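Comment thread on ticket #2218

A.B. wrote:
> Attaching the input chain for the structure job we discussed in standup.
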Amino acid sequence: MRYAFIFITSFTAVFLSSMSGCGSGLITLPTWIILGYPLPTAIACDKISSCFWTPIAAKNYLARTTIHWRLIIPMTALGILGSLAAAFLVIQVKEVIMKPIIGGIILIVLLLVGLQKDFGLEEIQKPTGDTLMHLLGFPLGYYEGFFGAGNGIFASYAFTRIKGFSLVTSLGNYYVMAFVWCLCSLSVLISNGFYNIPLFVSALLGSSLGGYLGSKVGVTMGSGFIKKALIVLGTILAIKLILE
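C.D. wrote:
> Ran it. Output below, let me know if you need it in another format.
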């Protein structure tokens, strides 16, 4: 029963996230912690799930747009350093300290999600801003390795405002980078003994299916309703973490 619940939770969270980039971790990470899994193991679960569903989502989004290799390769490289550093931080910091911090981050991300309305609907690419985007790779990779929820919003906002990408192009390119960053963070966590195979298998199966279906829908339908649902669910879970 527990693992069926994990499958459903992972499917639902990633289905919503892959539509909008709002972050499946808003739902999954607090849920794994509430179920009793240690924080590093919970984060490792989200990272291995992301390693499966982000390539699927990237393929669906990039089927209608372009991958900008010259832009994202330097970003990915700097982001690898950030994701590795973040993974070591997760291992060293005590869970009791991290719970309210994660709850606070969730509420901040939800606020940003609520403020994002109609940006990125049209593709008006700009020739400038590459160096700034390259430098943003480090903090984006760091956050992806540490928590990651809502990172698609941060990355999409940067791609849209700095480079003029549409939301579809932004998410497609972001998911390519996120796959690499999650893989690096996951390698650190697993090598330090933070894994739970039944949890991982249940979550990655649900997330893979959710990522495929959600990104298919997201390419064509938009995500206004999905963001509202994330705000409600994420707020409930964040408050629970902060009060524990």
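A.B. wrote:
> Thanks. Noting for the ticket: The two ends are 25 Å apart (CA to CA).
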